[in-house]
Structures are given as structure tokens and as C-alpha cells.
Amino acid sequence: MKKIILVLILLLTSCVSTGMNDLDKIWEKENKEIFNKIGIREYIGITKEQAIKAMVIAFQRLDIIIENSDFKVGTLTGTAIAPKPISYDEFQTVIAVENARAQSTAGPFFVWTLRGFNSKYNIIYLEIPNGVQISIRANLRYTGRTDMIAIQNFPPKATEIAIKKIWNEFEKIEFIQRATLKKR
Asked: Does the pLDDT at position 61 exceed 70?
């Protein structure tokens, strides 16, 4: 009897693990498309340094902690406790949109949890003629219990919401910078 229970537990664990990996791959593929579609923007009339400074302020306003920035190379990395920068209410929207697919792919034992997850954002700045191209990428980092099977990619709806919030906050700051610079 104990052997049968052990075999059932092992089979169940294997199915959950496979389902989580499948879901993570689906979300990764869809997120790449989202990042390529709305995660890249070009700004004319702003320098790489101005863009990085504006994004640093935007990150701070969205409770994303700056881990690293390099003005010369043009990189910025920040981390937040998930689901930030999206709010709890926005996360409920994500669950409503993604829950059926998550459970059909990962199985009925899939559980939405935020415990132990950090949102990690990487921004790359490339100088272009008369401006800068900015590219946002992100993923989840699991820092919680070691006995849990964790995903590494945001649900696509969460990616979409987060990118829009980051751009919105960045553009507010960038607009203020331009207005201030023009006044001088």
C-alpha cells in the first residue's frame, strides 16, 4: 500500500512539474512577442543619460529598486517584490484572464501565489540618430521554498500591464525633464 501511494505521489509530482514547465514555455514565448511589440520605443531629442535618469525616477515611483545602472554602457536593472509594479487589483485581472489556461496547461493543482517571487526588470538604452532606443525585458525570480515548482515568466497579461505602467511613468518624467531643459 505504501509503495502504491509513493508511486502515485511521484507520478502526480511529475505531471505537475511537466505542466508548470509547459506553462512557463508558453508564457515565455508570448512574453517575447509582447516585449518585441510594446517593450521597445524610440525617443528623439533625448540623450541616453537623460533617458536613464528618467527611468531611474520612474522605477522609484513604481517601487522598483535599482540594482545596477551603467550610464556609459546604457543599462539599468531593477527588482521589485512581485507583482509590482502592477497593483493587487491589476493582478486579479491577470488571474481572471490567465487562470483557465494556467490550470488547463499546468493542471488543476496550479496555484496563484506571489510569495517568494521578485519581478526583475532589465532596460537597455541604445543611441540612435538624434535620440535613444529603449528596450524593456523582465522575468520572475523565485526566492522562496525550495520544494516548490516555480515559473520564471510573467503571465502575458501581467507583462502587458507592467510594460504600459513603466512607459507611462517614464514618459511623465521624460516630459518634465524636457520642459525643464527647454526653460533654461
From this structure: yes
Radius of gyration of the chain (CA): 20
Average pLDDT rounded to a whole number, residues 44-48: 92
Question: Cell digits for 4?
Answer: 502504491
Give the integer Cα–Cα distance in Å for 134 and 48. 9
Contact of 149 with 107, CB cutoff 8 Å = no
Residues 76, 121: Cα–Cα separation, whole Å: 8
Nearby residues of 46 by Cβ (< 8 Å), 6 or more positions away: 54, 131, 132, 174, 177, 178
Out of 11-15, 82-86, 117-121, 177-181, least confident range: 11-15
Spell out the domain ranges in the chain: 2-183
* Pairing state between β 75-81 and 65-70: antiparallel
Q: Beta partners for 97?
A: none
Grid cell, residue 51, equals 533617458
Range with top average pLDDT, 26-30, 43-47, 68-72, 104-108: 26-30
Cell of 167: 512607459
For residue range 68-79, what is the model confidence (pLDDT) as tens digits? 999 899 999 999
How far apart (Å, rounded) are the C-alpha atoms in residues 52 and 112?
33
Render 57-77 in DSSP notation, one character per residue: HHHHHTTPEEEEEETTTTEEE
For the domain spanning 2-183, the CATH number is 3.30.530.50
